[in-house]
Automatic annotation (TrEMBL):
Gene3D superfamilies: 2.40.128.20. It is found in: Cytoplasm. Its main location: cytoplasm. Pfam families: Lipocalin_7. GO terms for molecular function: lipid binding. Keywords: Cytoplasm, Lipid-binding, Transport. GO terms for cellular component: cytoplasm. It comes from the Eukaryota. The gene is Fabp6. This is FABP6 protein. Belongs to the calycin superfamily. Fatty-acid binding protein (FABP) family. The lineage of its organism: Eukaryota, Metazoa, Chordata, Craniata, Vertebrata. Coiled coil: none annotated. Residues 9-26 form the Cytosolic fatty-acid binding proteins domain.
Length: 132
């Protein structure tokens, strides 16, 4: 499929919109809210066909890794560290995951990684630029 390998690479946080409103909606603990604010998260994506390993490196050495295969249920972890099961789908070149209390999409647009999380009408958008 066209653009199937488009996600592989390393991306550094560039900017976001609606962070405060979104983390309040999902009930993120305040220490985690501070940790994630304007956080220079580096997202590393390893892709082999429909198999993905998606790692987020936070400043200070904290790392979250989710491994999944498109179309198959996988064990995942949220921003707040909650564990859950989700099936990631591919829709129009976007990865789509239904988290317990929000919907998350990721796509490559103009060479950037654009992630959008939606919870009860609040849309949080995070853009990261490719660094490797």
């Amino acid at each position: 499929p066209k653009g199937a390998m488009a996600f592989a690479g390393k991306y550094e946080f560039e900017g976001d919109e609606n962070y405060e409103a979104f983390v309040q909606k999902i009930g993120l603990p305040s220490d985690k809210v501070e940790m994630g604010r304007n956080c220079k998260i580096v997202t590393e994506v390893v892709q082999n066909g429909n198999d993905f390993t998606w790692t987020q490196h936070f400043p200070g050495g904290h790392t979250t890794t989710n491994s999944f295969t498109v179309g198959k249920e996988a064990d995942m972890e949220t921003m707040g560290g909650k564990k859950f099961k989700a099936t990631v789908k591919m829709e129009d070149g976007k990865l789509v995951a239904e988290f317990p209390n929000y919907r998350h999409t990721a796509e490559i647009s103009g060479g950037k990684l654009v992630e959008i999380s939606t919870c009860a009408g609040v849309v949080y958008k995070r853009t990261s630029k490719k660094i490797a």
